[in-house]
């Protein structure tokens, strides 16, 4: 019995260990029941999700809670949630089907099959007929939720055994079974869904099928197990579909034979049959490729297609899979059949592409090579030899044989294919394109091998010459330029770059030293050059032989263009010292390069560029070769005729003729940098005697150097001739244009501190064949450009001195050569004599600049008159333009609108608008400095200038045009102020009167818009209505409406701003009033100083209460203040010492007010520092206020000052009224606007005598003249009325 009791005690006390606690997921309904399911699996089956786990076994926990499902794993005593998803309805059961699948039942009768990561595998309903709701599955209600209500619990109502799921209902048992993999395919197969059945088979083969429990674990074992069935499935599909096609289309063919249109209908039926077989074959090919059973494809499936006479259909199906690299090998008989079929169809390029995508090791090499030779698949042939045998020479040999034996038409494409192949091999890329790169170690030997092949003797007939005919000549004869460009690539650097298929692109990046070549590289280059020289020697005899036969000369090779390519190719290698030629050949090369005969392919627009390139080739040749190899005098004569000035300068320099060299360099106007680089180098290298003479010669050539490049000439002067600047200026005085350019550069440097030397760097150094390496000329050029780029630092160490005489001389020249730049110079430069500059501007007729100077000295009226002086002539020109336009226009409204738009774009209208904008800007700048009457005279004179043309004569006549302004060289006082400034008028009989009215309405509108803000609006309205009262209102309708709209808009803005200010002021004042006027209650009934009660008869009759709650006797406070040596109270004597540090930086109370300067929202609690006193016999005594005249704004300012406290009884009561409603104010503003616009014009004073007033404005120098050199372009102020 004791043993029994001991055993029961052990069972009742298990050892529990908590690994983890999972919180309830978000969104779970309170009181819902959770359902769990455990599954223990091995680590191997879980490796795909946790490959690094160390435990042998892994426990999986599935939790279904309301609509949330979680999957957690327990590994090494650690529980982690790695799966979490939601359901459409609440879960009522969960169970593991295996370690990869989870069964979940929902309250709505749905059975879900999930993967452990939450992927839905299958969904079905387990509801039985006539069973709904609670009858679906059994439950109990023994559990109570947190609200005390019973909850339905469905625990232990779902169980899994093997592949079956058992669901226990109240009166029934449901069993759901998971089908094995073979039965799944059979179900689809019996239903006729072959595509889904085949897809299921491929999914099983890939190991991606879910819910499969009767297959091995490893993928290889699965594939071995299902392979026989997959093969049987495919063959059954093909057999059944073939039978269906045979039955269906045989009946259709019999029907077609009975109709009259037999041929067309039969063709349509055959196309349909072929389409059906194509679909079947496509499925079979893709399925076999997927399961890697191409043997089934090329045996059973192919034989079936052959049996129904659709072999060609099957072969055509293979092409897309071959091009996608899905089929990389074919059996020999299939390959032969494919080539024969495609060649019969003329699809050789397509079959060639198929060969390029195949695995050579899996092909019958000899068979495929034979097929490629028979059918001319040369790209495939090259690919086979290169990849299969690493043989790059044999394809060239075969192609060359074919090239020699072909006609011209078929040989050209083959020859270009050879050139592309050679270029790819020389540049290190595999052929055909897109097949990767060649090994870097193979490239040097490959280049030498292929070049050696090109230099070998050809088997072509050489009866016409005793010299051997090399393989290279065949390609040269095909395309000399392209062949030479490809040949250059053979001696390029070993850099793998993306090659350009275009053979005309040159290989620019070549090796620079002999050491970069492979062994024998220089020897190969010399052999190539010698072979090309043989062609040139052969050409001489051929030209003598055919000199009387033009047709033979035209057909003979090499042509003149080909010879040019050969000469340039040989010169390229000679300039790099990689090859040598005889003096005779060198002379011929120089003669060709200095001739003006360009090749026919070179377009005329590139002639200058090509000649410059040839010039630099000649220069590079002469710098490389010793002088004994060429005749200097002969070459100099040729270069002078060819205008190769760089070469001429080089030859003169070699002969120590430095001045002649300088003159040659100066003739090269396209690249002036060479002349200045030569001067810079010669000055530093010549001895003292030669250097002095050379410097004098340079100074005498300064004008020409300035014309060549003013920036470089200026740098030359300050670098080498800074002490002789006076002499240089005197030398330039005889050349005004050169002096102007030089002074312009000086002024630019003075103003900006830098110069633009970009035009000097346009010289393309890459055009030199050797890229400047070891080239004396290029080294000199680089040294000079290095100094030029360091110009800012040089200028800081050597500042420029600009005198007043230089500035005035430059301004005079600027008036002569760049009239449009005078105004900009005067605006940006301020060190000049205004009177002298004004005289120059008047003398040369620079109107805008003269007006600027008049404005600067304060004569604004004369500036405005001068700006308007050319307006009359502009109106006259506009009249001519409008008349010409009206003469060719039909009278219609649409025509007039189009005509107006055209006239607005004319130069005459743009000139008038430019004058108008300049005058408006002048008036706007000077209005703030004038009194209102003077500014109105300025504005109205401008307005009158555009209003006067509208006042045409009633009889239709036009006032004669006279020269009323005179020349600008005359004094300003000679202008006839009494007469009208604008004499041109619009006649009523003018055909374009309507056009002119619209144009001038636009002009006047621009002026009025500029006046708004500077002139009072009533004054503008009075001017428009009174001076133009006899005109049609339509002329000014847009202008007046625009003014009123602007005024109304600004008035509404003003009313809105005023309302906002009033609202804010009221709110602030109300807060201040509340903070200053409410009462305070003491914290206790004792004095905070003497601790005596605040009762009647104790220490006097007055007490003081502070806003902090402390209360004191007035007598105690006086004693405390006296003890602290303060004459005035400064706050609570208890709180103030605690905040002494804060009070030193910022006062805690207002000096004259009641509140501290704090936020308005805190004023309620901290606003008051003292309150009124009360007598012993009265709790509170009313005190009359003595200051009743203080305004509210003064009171607000007083409250915000940092002053000490004062008694509240000394302040007046604050009587505040809320602001008016916003819409009432807006309405009032609109009414006011309407009232102002309805003022009777007759009651306004009409200004008269505008010309006389304007004259008075000009005479009153004290009011509108400004001090000399005073800036009038300060901050403008705007007057708003």
From TrEMBL:
TM ranges: none
Matches recorded under InterPro entries: Clathrin_H-chain/VPS_repeat (IPR000547), Vps41/Vps8 (IPR045111), Vps8_central_dom (IPR025941), Znf_RING (IPR001841)
Keyword Zinc-finger: yes
MF annotations from Gene Ontology: zinc ion binding
Domain RING-type residues, every copy: 1087-1135
GO cellular component: HOPS complex; late endosome
Coiled-coil stretches: none
Name the UniProt record assigns to this protein: RING-type domain-containing protein
Organism (species): Punica granatum (Pomegranate)
């Amino acid at each position: 019995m004791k043993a029994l009791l001991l055993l029961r005690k052990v069972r009742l006390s298990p050892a529990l260990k908590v690994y983890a606690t999972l919180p309830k997921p978000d969104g779970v309904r309170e009181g819902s029941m959770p359902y769990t399911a455990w599954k223990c699996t091995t680590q191997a089956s879980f490796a795909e999700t946790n490959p690094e786990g160390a435990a042998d076994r892994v426990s999986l926990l599935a939790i279904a809670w309301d609509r949330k499902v979680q999957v957690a794993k327990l590994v090494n005593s650690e529980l982690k949630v790695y799966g979490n998803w939601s359901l459409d309805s609440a879960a009522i059961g969960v169970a593991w089907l295996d370690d990869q699948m989870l069964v979940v039942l929902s309250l709505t009768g749905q059975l879900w099959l999930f993967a452990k990561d939450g992927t839905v595998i299958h969904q079905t309903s387990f509801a039985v007929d006539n069973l709904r709701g609670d009858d679906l599955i059994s439950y109990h209600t023994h559990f109570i939720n947190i609200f005390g209500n019973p909850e339905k619990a469905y625990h232990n109502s779902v169980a899994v055994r093997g592949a079956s799921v058992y669901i226990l209902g109240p009166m029934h048992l449901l069993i759901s079974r998971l089908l094995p993999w073979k039965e799944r395919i059979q179900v689809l197969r019996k239903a006729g869904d072959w595509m889904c059945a085949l897809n299921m088979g491929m999914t099983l083969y890939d190991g991606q099928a879910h819910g499969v429990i009767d297959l091995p674990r490893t993928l290889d074992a699965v594939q071995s197990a299902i392979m026989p069935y997959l093969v049987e499935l495919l063959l059954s599909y093909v057999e059944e579909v073939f039978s269906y096609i045979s039955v269906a289309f045989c009946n259709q063919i019999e029907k077609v034979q009975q109709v009259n249109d037999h041929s067309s209908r039969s063709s349509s039926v055959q196309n349909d049959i072929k389409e059906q077989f194509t679909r079947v074959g496509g499925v079979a090919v893709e399925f076999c490729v997927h399961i890697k059973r191409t043997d089934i494809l090329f045996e059973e499936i192919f034989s079936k297609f052959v049996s129904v006479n659709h072999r060609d259909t099957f072969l055509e199906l293979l092409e897309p899979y071959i091009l996608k690299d899905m089929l990389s090998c074919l059996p020999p008989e299939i390959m032969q059949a494919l080539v024969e079929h495609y060649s019969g169809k003329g699809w050789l390029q397509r079959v060639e592409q198929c060969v390029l995508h195949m695995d050579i090791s899996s092909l019958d090499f000899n068979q495929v090579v034979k097929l490629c030779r028979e059918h001319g698949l040369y790209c495939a042939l090259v690919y086979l030899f290169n990849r299969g045998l690493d043989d790059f020479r044999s394809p060239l040999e075969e192609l060359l044989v074919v090239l020699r034996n072909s006609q011209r038409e078929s040989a050209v494409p083959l020859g270009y294919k050879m050139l592309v192949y050679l270029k790819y091999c020389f540049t290190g890329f595999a052929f055909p394109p897109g097949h990767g790169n060649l090994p870097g170690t193979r490239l040097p030997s490959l280049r030498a091998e292929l070049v050696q092949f090109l230099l070998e003797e050809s088997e072509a007939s050489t009866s016409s010459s005793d010299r051997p005919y090399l393989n290279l000549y065949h390609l040269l004869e095909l395309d000399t330029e392209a062949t030479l460009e490809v040949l250059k690539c053979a001696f390029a650097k070993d850099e793998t770059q993306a090659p350009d298929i275009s053979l005309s692109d040159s290989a620019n990046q070549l090796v620079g030293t002999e050491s970069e070549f492979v062994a024998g590289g220089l020897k190969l280059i010399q052999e190539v050059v010698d072979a090309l020289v043989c062609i040139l020697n052969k050409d001489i005899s051929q030209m003598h032989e055919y000199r009387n036969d033009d047709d033979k000369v035209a057909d003979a090779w090499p042509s003149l263009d080909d010879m040019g390519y050969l000469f340039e190719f040989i010169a390229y290698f000679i300039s790099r010292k990689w090859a040598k030629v005889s003096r005779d050949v060198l002379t011929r090369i120089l003669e060709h390069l200095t001739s003006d005969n360009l090749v026919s392919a070179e377009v005329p627009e590139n002639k200058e560029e090509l000649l410059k390139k040839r010039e630099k080739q000649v220069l590079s040749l002469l710098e490389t070769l010793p002088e004994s190899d060429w005749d200097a005098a002969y070459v100099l004569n040729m270069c002078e005729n060819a205008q190769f000035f760089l070469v001429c300068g080089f030859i003169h320099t070699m002969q120590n003729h430095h001045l002649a060299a300088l003159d040659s360099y100066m003739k090269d106007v396209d690249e002036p940098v060479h002349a200045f680089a030569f001067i810079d180098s010669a000055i530093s290298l010549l001895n003292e005697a030669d250097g002095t003479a050379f410097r004098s010669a340079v100074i005498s050539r300064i004008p020409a150097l300035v014309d060549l490049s003013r920036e470089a000439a200026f740098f030359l002067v300050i670098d080498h001739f800074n002490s002789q600047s006076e002499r240089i200026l005197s030398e330039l005085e005889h050349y005004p244009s050169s002096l102007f350019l030089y002074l312009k550069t000086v002024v630019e440097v003075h103003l900006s501190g830098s110069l633009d030397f970009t035009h000097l760097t346009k010289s393309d150094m890459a055009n030199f064949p050797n890229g400047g390496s070891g080239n004396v000329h290029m080294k000199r050029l680089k040294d000079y450009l290095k100094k030029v780029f360091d110009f800012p630092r040089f200028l800081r160490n050597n500042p420029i001195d600009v005198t007043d005489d230089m500035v005035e001389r430059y301004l005079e020249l600027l008036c002569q050569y760049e009239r449009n730049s005078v105004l900009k110079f005067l605006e940006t430069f301020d060190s000049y004599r205004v009177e002298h500059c004004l005289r120059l501007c008047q003398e040369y007729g620079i109107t805008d600049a003269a007006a600027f100077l008049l404005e600067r000295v304060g004569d604004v009226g004369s500036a405005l008159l001068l700006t308007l002086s050319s307006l009359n002539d502009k109106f006259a020109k506009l009249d001519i333009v409008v008349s010409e336009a009206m003469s060719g226009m039909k009278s219609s409204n649409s025509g007039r609108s189009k005509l107006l738009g055209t006239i607005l774009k004319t130069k005459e209208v743009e000139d008038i608008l430019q004058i108008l904008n300049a005058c408006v800007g002048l008036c706007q700048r000077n209005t703030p400095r004038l009194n209102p009457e003077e500014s109105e005279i300025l504005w109205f004179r401008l307005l009158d200038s555009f209003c006067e043309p509208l006042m045409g004569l009633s009889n239709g006549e036009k006032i004669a045009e006279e020269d009323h302004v005179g020349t600008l060289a005359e004094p300003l006082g000679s202008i006839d102020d009494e007469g009208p400034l604008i004499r041109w008028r619009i006649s009523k009989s003018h055909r374009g009167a309507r056009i002119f009215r619209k144009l001038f309405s636009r002009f006047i509108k621009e002026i009025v818009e500029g006046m708004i803000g500077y002139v009072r609006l009533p004054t503008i309205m009075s001017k428009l209505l009174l001076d133009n009262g006899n005109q049609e209102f339509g002329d000014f309708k847009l202008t007046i409406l625009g003014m009123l709209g602007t005024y109304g808009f600004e008035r509404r803005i003003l009313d809105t701003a005023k309302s906002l200010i009033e609202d804010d002021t009221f709110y602030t004042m109300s807060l201040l009033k509340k903070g200053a006027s409410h009462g305070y209650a003491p914290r206790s009934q004792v004095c905070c100083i003497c601790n005596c009660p605040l009762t009647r008869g104790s220490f006097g009759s007055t007490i003081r209460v502070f806003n902090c709650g402390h209360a004191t006797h007035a007598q105690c406070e006086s004693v405390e203040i006296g003890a602290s040596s303060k004459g005035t109270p400064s706050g609570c004597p208890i709180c103030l010492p605690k905040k002494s540090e804060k009070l030193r930086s910022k006062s805690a109370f207002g000096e004259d007010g009641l509140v501290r300067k704090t936020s308005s929202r805190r004023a309620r609690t901290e606003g008051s520092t003292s309150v009124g006193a009360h007598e012993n016999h009265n709790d509170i005594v009313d005190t009359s206020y003595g200051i009743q005249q203080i305004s509210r704004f003064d009171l607000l300012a007083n409250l915000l000052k940092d002053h000490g406290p004062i008694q509240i009884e000394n302040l007046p009561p604050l009587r505040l009224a809320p602001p008016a409603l916003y819409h009432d104010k807006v309405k009032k503003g609109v009414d006011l606007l309407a009232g102002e616009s309805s003022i009777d014009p007759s009651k306004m004073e009409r200004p008269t005598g505008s010309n006389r007033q304007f004259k008075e404005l000009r005479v009153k120098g004290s009011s509108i003249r400004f001090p000399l050199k005073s800036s009038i372009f300060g901050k403008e102020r705007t007057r708003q009325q």
